[in-house]
């Protein structure tokens, strides 16, 4: 019942918390040019294209949605979003619905077990591969130099 009463940026943060886990992941996904600043255009296209979200429907805000929604995230009024803006927008929702253990830290590198393919293949696979032969028509002679038919582009230079 608590999520139904959310509006605007809070509803979007709820979705981003479930998808991204932490504000940093949402920020990194939306900063498409890696400038350290998420512009309004990056915000719009990132939500639509990278996340595939219809943020207008999610936020349930009156149209136009983009500018007022962006302003809810831009609490410092800089005209762009930085990493901390994502964490400062609805921090209680990030805390309740996000995943602090995301991304999962990789403690040891994964090294796949190597197995000899010789023992795991069927006996018929150990034979030498057979090269396919191409049947040539005796009516068209081939060039001795390139092995191509006389009607080909082998000697196209005049």
Overview of the molecule:
The mean pLDDT is 80. The longest helix has 12 residues, at 9-20. Helix 1 (9-20) packs across helix 2. The chain has 158 residues and is mainly alpha-helical. It starts with 8 loop residues before the first helix and ends in a 38-residue tail after the last helix. It has helices at 9-20, 23-30, 40-50, 55-59, 66-73, 83-88, 91-97, 117-120.
Question: What fraction of residues sit in β-strands?
Answer: under 5%
Q: What profile does the largest beta sheet have?
A: none
For the terminal residues, how far apart are their CA atoms? 82 Å
* Number of helical elements: 8
* Strand segment tally: 0
What Rg, in angstroms, do the CA atoms define?
A: 30 Å
Classification by helices and strands: mainly alpha
Please state the overall shape, judged from the principal axes of the Cα atoms: elongated
Please write the string of helix (H) and strand (E) elements. HHHHHHHH
What is the mean pLDDT?
A: 80
Instruction: State the low-pLDDT regions, or none.
Output: none
In helices, the fraction of residues equals 25-40%
Name its key features.
158 residues, 0% strand, elongated, mainly alpha, 8 helices
Q: Brief overview, please?
A:
By secondary structure, the chain is mostly helical. It contains eight helices and no strands.
